[in-house]
Every structure is written in C-alpha cells, then in structure tokens.
Amino acid sequence: MDDRSWASPTWYSFRHVLNLWCTHANHLGLRDNSEKSQYTHKRLLQRKFMRSIGHVAPCVVDHLCALGAYLGHGPPQPKETERFSKAMACAAKIRAAPASAYVRIFVASSAAAMKAAYGWLVFLGLLKS
C-alpha cells in the first residue's frame, strides 16, 4: 500500500487521523517508510509549529511531492527546474536529428513536451521566463 493522503482542518484532527492510521497499520502488520512521510500546511506559521513537534518535524515540508510532481504555490522547486532544463535539451537534440519534420514533431510531442509538462497542471512560471 502506498501514498496515503488526507487533509485535516486542525492540528488535532491531523494527529487523530495519523494515530488511527498508525494503529490500523500496526494491526494489519504494515510498516510505513517514515523517510517518505510528508506533512505540510498552507500557512508558514503552522508549518513552523509542526516543525516544533519532535516526531513530526523531520517530515514537515513546504511543498508535498507525489510521483515527482510538487503540490503547492510558489516558485518552482529545483527538481522541477531540472526537469524543464532536461526537456529543453531533449528538444534541441530532436531538432538536430536527421529525420523528417513529421518524425521530429512526433518525437518532440511525445518526449520533450511530456517531460516538460509532467506535474504542471496549473503552474506556468518557468514557461514565462
């Protein structure tokens, strides 16, 4: 089982659901990979509060990352910028490939464009710069 996700309106609700999950997982004999746990809050002050809680602190992040896509507002994350740079390099190689225009367009749309677009449902910040 992977990627358990939930949203909680309060810190107490979050702790309650987390405790329920831990109890249920233990009952089923499941072991969580605590290195992959991610907790966040939309407000910086609340994230600071969460970072002050000992066992939760190492898992608090500014932006959740699921399957390589970051969720949240703000500037692009380094991993996103790197992916976009790789897509641009891929497009440059495709443009120079000794193939017909049709083949280059097909490969670019299925390789470079997909690499650049992965995880970018709403954010267009890098495309503007």
Topology, element by element:
Blueprint: H1 11-28, H2 44-51, E1 64-66, E2 69-71, H3 78-95, H4 101-117, H5 125-128
Antiparallel strand pairs: 1-2
Helix pairs in contact: 3-4
Describe the structure.
- The structure is a single chain.
- This protein folds into 2 domains: 11-62, no CATH class; 78-128.
- The protein has 5 helices and 2 strands, in the order ααββααα.
- A hairpin with a 2-residue loop joins strand 1 (64-66) and strand 2 (69-71).
- The protein has helices at residues 11-28, 44-51, 78-95, 101-117, 125-128; strands spanning 64-66, 69-71.
- The chain is elongated.
- The model has no long low-confidence stretch (mean pLDDT 83).
- It is mainly alpha-helical and 129 residues long.
Count of structural domains: 2
Broad shape: elongated
H/E order of the elements?
Answer: HHEEHHH
Low-confidence stretches: none
Spatial separation of the terminal alpha carbons: 39 Å
Give the strand tally.
Answer: 2
Q: Find the structural class using helix and strand composition.
A: mainly alpha
For this entry, give a set of tags.
5 helices, two-stranded antiparallel sheet, elongated, 5% strand, mainly alpha, 2 domains, 129 residues
Summarize the structure.
This protein is mostly helical. It contains five helices and two strands; from the N terminus they run H-H-E-E-H-H-H.
